[in-house]
Amino acid sequence: MSYDLSLFGWTDLRAAGLPEGTVPARVARVDRGAAEVVAADGRHHVKYGARVRRASAADPVSLPCVGDWVALGLLPEGRYELDAVLPRTTAFVRGGVSRDSVGGLSGDGQGQVLAANVDVVFVAEPSMHSTDYADLGRIERLVALAWESGGTPVVLVTKSDLFEKGLEELLADVRVAAPGVDVHAVSSLRGDGVSLAGDYLDGSRTAVILGPSGAGKSTLVNALAGEPAMETQQVRAADGRGRHTTVHRELIPLRGGGLIIDTPGIRRIGLYDIGHGVDLVFSDIESLAEECRFGDCGHVSEPGCAVLSALESGELPERRLESWRKLQREAAWMATRTDARARKEQQNAWKIITKEMRRSGRNRP
């Protein structure tokens, strides 16, 4: 079966970066050391070439991921090899952050690319679990990372049929948590909001859908695809938590045009190389901070702090300020970890150079 790669997002601009003697393909799914790709002459299961393996060993962010455009080299035996990952226009990267045994942050400062070359990031948050409402803090975190990726975030409050009473108030709260971001209520089972989500994927645009297990991501993908593209399961009645139906990331072409990447449920996602993303999500706090008496105000107990004044008046919710502080601390911590890793890699590189220089000196006649 042949494919028109322009329907998958291939452009003349991308073609300009294709190494001579290779053919383009887009990664639809990844396995360990191999990937399923879509090329003009069909789908192929390809292993990583030596150059890709070396690059990924030095930096895990360079590993091929779903959505990547790659260059395939033809081997003498007639099969393809994944020879190079082409430059990404966008990349959704999560940091390697976890909780240690004493409840602090730990990790190695390395990132993992969840999806590449996406135009839209759908942040799916269920309107209601069995005991909880939508997690506004999780929405803020994912939207910050979405802005950082280069894609456009869109928040989808899923399973809206379970939360009809007070739904508008919930959507208003979500809009406060994600200023400047489109927010839609979606019920995949009833079809509410599905066409609105599909409108973001005109032509060959690509979206990735992110959220916790039980958010109805795969059900929404099936609704957009118009057919059962992904397996779905019911949320557990005992605790309202979803099962991890999707165990891999996969690029799915939609009948009406566009593509979507479904992902496994996310329990925790760390920040990575964060810059303006947090500032955009908390633009209300950033605007208030400009009115503080001191330029270096920490918004803790300083006199003339506009942020604390807004907190006291009720203009700024306490939950939102605490969420901002948490993400600021984590972003600062990740920056130090990333800098430390960069310094170590630079030191290792100089050791190799020094060793080679000494070896060359010994070999001189």
From TrEMBL:
Its main location: cytoplasm. InterPro entries: G_CP_dom, P-loop_NTPase, Ribosome_biogen_GTPase_RsgA, RsgA_GTPase_dom. Its EC number is 3.6.1.-. Zn(2+) binds at C292, C297, H299, C305. Residues 116-267 form the EngC GTPase domain. One of its GO terms (molecular function) is rRNA binding. Binds 1 zinc ion per subunit. Its cofactor is Zn(2+). Keywords: Cytoplasm, GTP-binding, Hydrolase, Metal-binding, Nucleotide-binding, Ribosome biogenesis, RNA-binding, rRNA-binding, Zinc. GO terms for biological process: ribosomal small subunit biogenesis. SUPFAM superfamilies: P-loop containing nucleoside triphosphate hydrolases. It is found in: Cytoplasm. It holds the Pfam family RsgA_GTPase. It comes from the Bacteria. Residues 106-269 form the CP-type G domain. Belongs to the TRAFAC class YlqF/YawG GTPase family. RsgA subfamily. Monomer. Associates with 30S ribosomal subunit, binds 16S rRNA. This is Small ribosomal subunit biogenesis GTPase RsgA.
